[in-house]
Amino acid sequence: MDFLNFDAEACTLCGICVNVCPFGALKFEKNGIEVGESCRMCGLCVRKCPEKAIRFEQKANEVNKEEWRDFLIYAEQEQGKIHPVVFELIGEALKMAPKVGYHVNCVIAGGPGTAENAKDLLEYGVHKVFVYEHEELKWFRADCYTDVIADCIAAVKPSSVLIGGTELGRSLAPRLATRFHTGLTADCTKLDIKDNTDMIQIRPAFGGNIMAQITISRSRPQFATVRYRVMEKAKKVENPDGEIIRCKMTDDMVKSSIEILSAEVLEKKKSLEEEDIIVVAGRGAKNETGVALCRELADALGGQLAFTRPMVEDGFGDTAHQIGLSGRTVRPKLIITCGVSGAIQFTSCMNGSECIVAINNNPEAQIFNTAHYCIVDDLNQVVPKLTELVRNRKED
Predict the structure, then answer these.
(1) How many CB atoms lie within 10 A of CB 187?
(2) What per-residue confidence (pLDDT) applies to 1?
(3) Could you tell me which CATH class the domain 272-395 is placed in?
(4) How far apart are the C-alpha atoms of 325 and 309, rounded to whole Å?
(5) What is the rounded CA–CA span in Å between residue 129 and residue 83?
(6) pTM of the model
């Protein structure tokens, strides 16, 4: 794809652009200076050219969609285990694949033990798992992992690449999309596919007021990240017949500009997304007293306390415990909202919960349109009684 355009008349072949390119993407050829695949579109050559002979144009280029087939899922590992979001991505891809006659494949990269973990993916109906295993991939380094996954994408040529919307995934996905000069839709809440293989990527937009449907119609592959606990997990198949393919590693793939001086594995705490029971303090909790009541209920149930965005902005909680578009998406077995109005920015990130109980003194509150059980009353009266009932039942 021609993103760098050279003005042959203005270019003096001084070589400054070649020398300043940090990726070695520019080379002297017979027809002048040519751009290689390692170009990262940083624009440094454009800024340094004394003759202003280089023009940077970032625009999509049309590809032959028939040459790009199947789904490829990045199988992220966390502390030596496959992240649960991967199985959700597999489940969603398996729903779409039959509509266009595609297979669902995975790529997994990491240190020793990665190939063994790859076997777990086959149990969920994956067609092929591409394995990149190397001691230098034990810790995540963005440049190395980008090179490794890009190597797989270039070889396999998938139509769509799905990546979990984790901290690691949000670092990796935009780098890969930039590498292949294509589009990326972040934090999708639903996916579908057209007959022409364009993936329909649905996500909230404009503060959650609309659900945008986004397609990448001219370029491939199509990249999308999906939040954890948004989609249904894939189910194991009875007779898995997938294949594990060990991919060749090169020295260049593990050559990094990032030097790890020391590494320490932090004690993993149960995240809000992994919690089965959540109590949410909304604006109706009003103050520390109301929040304390909600916290006592959460503790009695053995769950976690979460907050709406206004409560976090008022200093009652942090973003790690915030539910909403700018916070977390959850799907617990039980969620109890206390004084939550139920704006779409909040409900779109928790409406997949198995059981939703809403407490609000406003009978017209929007949250009641989402809840399975509705309690129209003052949370300061209801929550303490619920806490007492829970504690008494545990004692019995």
Answers:
(1) 17
(2) 42
(3) alpha beta
(4) 9
(5) 15
(6) 0.80
